[in-house]
Design goal:
Layout: E1 3-9, H1 16-24, E2 32-38, H2 45-55, E3 60-63, H3 71-78, E4 86-91, E5 95-96, H4 101-111, E6 115-126, E7 132-134, E8 162-164, H5 180-188, E9 192-205, H6 216-234, H7 239-259, H8 263-274, H9 278-283, H10 285-296, H11 305-308
Helix pairs in contact: 6-7, 7-8, 8-10
């Protein structure tokens, strides 16, 4: 099998048919199959998926747990079912817009033997607001440096990825808060990641998504857990980059707790902030001094509304 489309779906009744149609419409000169884990949705997602399986029995391998197991356990369960030389990633709420996408990416990896993964431009649609935009690639060549995966945000939309099927998931994978960035970083140790400047996918953002459906505060805590593990896995080579991420996450967590009058929690995370990246602390010295006054000198926080209510920053500065 040349390509396996590795998918998961949960509460995607509104989206799953369009998603699967975009896969089945792919034009290739090779065989591909679809491995799909449906995680006990509360809507008709499983019913729809079973309908596609009935219509295309040779195309689908389904994993259908009897109870919800969560995104990371689902990856662990379905990954061994993927037998393709390459894996194309897709979630049930996204879809592909180019019928030649699989062929283009498979040909690209065939031609670039030093590359373990390729991805491409996408359109991001916010289903809640209607806002949409096209992703922007910031590198000077088609080679994505590992450092660009360590700027505090994910520059790669999941439905744009095709990767070589060479990465056994580590035992601790299921303990992590998310798998996409983890996969890219682990793959980057085995070869190069390259970009294709062609828009071939839609990536949806909506309030019921795994990331968007949780609070910003919880997502900050997830990030801390993720980068603690990455710090130990990647070693000292990227410790400076990760240290800055820690600093910014602690900074925003402190501000969130001050806004919500959780002063003891703010103090605890403020102490952690002071133990992070020295350069970051110096660059933000005035704001950090202000926070210290609020937390330890009873400064009135209402005097500093611009700081306390500032928008959370994912990309490190």
């Amino acid at each position: 099998m040349k390509v396996t489309v590795w998918m998961s779906a949960f509460n995607h009744e509104k989206y799953i048919a369009r998603c699967l149609d975009s896969v089945l419409s792919q034009k290739t000169d090779f065989d591909f199959d679809i491995v799909l884990g449906e995680d006990c949705s509360k809507d008709r997602t499983r019913e729809i998926v079973l309908g596609y399986k009935e219509r295309f029995p040779e195309k689908f391998k389904l994993f259908l747990p009897e109870k919800n197991i969560g995104m990371m356990e689902m990856d662990m369960a379905t990954n061994p079912l993927c037998i393709g030389e390459y894996l194309a990633l897709l979630n049930g709420d996204d879809y592909w817009t180019d019928e030649n996408k699989l062929q283009i990416q498979a040909d690209f990896l065939d031609a670039n033997l030093d590359s373990v993964m390729c991805y491409h431009k996408a359109t991001v649609i916010n289903d809640d607001t209607g806002y949409e935009f096209e992703t922007v690639y910031l590198e000077e060549t088609d080679l994505l440096p590992v450092e660009s995966l360590l700027n505090g945000y994910n520059p790669i939309m999941t439905p744009t990825v095709m990767m070589r099927n060479i990465l056994p998931l580590p035992e601790w994978y299921a303990e992590m808060p998310y798998g996409d960035m983890l996969t890219y970083l682990l793959l980057s140790r085995k070869g190069k990641i390259r970009y294709i400047d062609r828009n071939m996918s839609i990536y949806r953002v909506h309030g019921s998504g795994q990331w968007q459906g949780d609070s910003m505060y919880n997502n900050l805590l997830k990030d801390l857990k993720f980068y603690r593990k990455m710090s130990s896995v990647l070693g000292t080579k990227y410790s400076d980059k990760i240290s800055v991420i820690f600093a910014q996450r602690y900074f925003d967590i402190v501000l969130w707790n001050i806004r919500n009058d959780n002063i003891q929690q703010a103090k605890r995370f403020f102490r952690k902030l002071l133990a992070t990246d020295r350069k970051y602390l110096l660059q933000n010295y005035r704001d950090i001094l202000t926070i210290h006054k609020i937390l330890f000198e009873n400064e009135d926080k209402s005097k500093h509304n611009d700081l306390i209510s500032r928008e959370l920053k994912w990309k490190v500065n």
